[in-house]
Amino acid sequence: MSPRSPMRPPPGRQQLPREFIARHQRQRIINALAEEAAEKGYRAVTVADIVRRAGIARNTFYENFPSKEGCFLAAQEYAVEEALRRVVEAAGGVDSWQERVRAGLGSFLASVATEPALARACFVEALSAGPAAVERYEASLQAFVPLFRIGRKVSPQGGELPATLEETIVGGIFWILYQRIVAGETERIEELLPELIEFALTPYVGAEAARRTASEPPL
Amino acid sequence: MAAEPADSAVDQAAEYPPELSRLPPGRHGLPREFVVHNQHERLIAGLAEAVAEKGFANTTIADITRHAAVSRRTFYEHFTSKDECFVKAYDTVMEQLRERVGEAYQAEDDWPHAIKAGIAAMLAFLATEPNLARLCMVEALVAGPIVVERYDAAIQSLVPYFRKGRKGRPREVLDRLSPTTEEALVGGMVSLVSRRIFAGRTEDLEQLLPDLVEFALTPYLGSAEAAKIAREG
After folding, report:
1. Searching chain B, which residue's CA lies closest to the CA of residue A209?
2. B9-79 — its CATH code?
3. How far is CA B20 from CA A68, A76, B41, B49, B85, in A?
4. Does residue B34 have a pLDDT over 80?
5. For chain A, how many structural domains are there in total?
6. pTM for the complete prediction?
7. B101-109: average pLDDT
8. In chain B, which among 99-118 make CB contacts under 8 A with chain A?
């Protein structure tokens, strides 16, 4: 559990509300699955592995999730929601769209770097975890498309850009992340930020403007 | 393919798997008769059909032999497991794909048109062979680590073709490219194509050609020139 997790109880509370405990537990189980899957591959993980890692009873697992698959889908859902929330937050106080992409992508890569097991689950294991997981993967890719689509408004080419451009950009970013995760290079993922900003912005604002945004010092 | 499994597969000429029927004679350097009766090829095509029907996980050896119109004993003469059969099938399909794409690429005089021809050949192959498309771009990811490695390597093997686009470009174009430009381009394009295949939309694949070509050529030629080549003829 990363120190930035929102699941720490406020200091001084003697009695934790049921809801808090429930959320915390779900989170713990999801993290346990992600870590087991990162080690063994999703297929090889059993519910026994998950409960052992999470330090909970088997019953507790089944109170939270119907199955291993159900838990995995929940992990994907959680990861996307969290990532989107952080991206939108990071991009919030900024004026230009290019700057918002920079801040958002930066926060996204930071999420991947701080939660490598979850990132592995979403970018790597998801593709071999069954059709429902692949659909979730697809949905998570699509979830980021609107953020890039806004670029068409600031682009001199606007309406003439290929219809599939956003999907291809997000797909390309996801592929690069996949490669780096498989190669075990997650700690270095944030180094990719300038290149990925350029890759994402160039089709909308041209290479020069993209490079300018990409080479600005971090916020 | 409703043929009964036969102990010797010799007399099934009229019912050989559709994938094989589309191979021009001599592609393997073998006469068509031989290919048709070649159990190995039939098993591979049989696997492609079986997996297209049920997905790799749910496919059994019985499914494969039924589609291939060979006996279970024959299967085990060629492969020790479903996994091994899949690896072979994957390698065979990828070889066909590489040949088609390579031929189309080599036939053009300049790099941008070579890229366009290569992408067109790939989309055409995948669109006309939906079972094989699914096999190599969707099912490959669930067929175990050996195949996944090959899949990754196959995608990365496209990078050098795009890297050639750097040759002869002016300094200011080269300066705008980064070490991962080609990887991101290839990854984006493959992602788009494989997701269409996953959604069962192989008939739509060839429509992606102009978008993909424009996307691929823009970093090297600029958007105006890339769009022109993408949308011409």
Report:
1. B176
2. 1.10.10.60
3. 40, 40, 8, 12, 16
4. no
5. 1
6. 0.82
7. 96
8. none
Per-residue pLDDT of B86-96, as tens digits, reads 999 999 999 99
Q: Quick check: helix, strand or coil at residue B75?
A: helix
Q: Which residue among B55, B152, B191 sits closest to A171, beta carbon to beta carbon?
A: B191
In chain A, whose CA is at the least distance from the CA of B179? A195
The predicted-structure confidence for A22-45, as pLDDT tens digits, reads as follows 778 999 999 999 999 999 999 899
Residue A109 lies in a domain: yes
At residue B19, what is the residue type? E
The tokens of A178 are what? 């996949």
**Residue A8 per-residue DSSP state:** S
Q: What is the Cα gyration radius of chain B?
A: 20
- Are the beta carbons of B188 and B215 closer than 8 angstroms? yes
CA-based nearest residue to B42, from B78, B10, B16, B13: B16
CA dist A183 and B220 (Å) reads 28
A131, A134, A172 ranked by CB distance to B184: nearest? A172
- Contact between chains at B188 and A160 (C-beta distance less than 8 A): no
Is residue B63 within 8 Å of B50, Cβ to Cβ? yes
Domain assignment present for residue A22? The answer is no
Distance CA B149, CA A7 (A): 37
Chain B residues with CB-CB distance to A120 below 8 A:
none
Residues with Cβ within 8 Å of A150's Cβ and at least 6 positions away in sequence, in order, are A97
What's the ipTM? 0.80
What values do phi and psi take at A188, rounded to 5?
A: -100, 5
Q: Which helix (H) or strand (E) holds A184?
A: none
- Tell me if A175 and B210 make a contact (CB, 8 A cut-off): no
| Tokens 């019985």 found at | B62
CATH number of the domain bearing residue A182: 1.10.357
For B87-231, the fitting CATH number among 1.10.357, 1.20.1260, 1.10.10, 3.40.50 is: 1.10.357
Token code pair at residue A20: 């808090």
Cα→Cα distances A83→A16, A78, B73, B131, B199, Å: 27, 8, 52, 35, 25
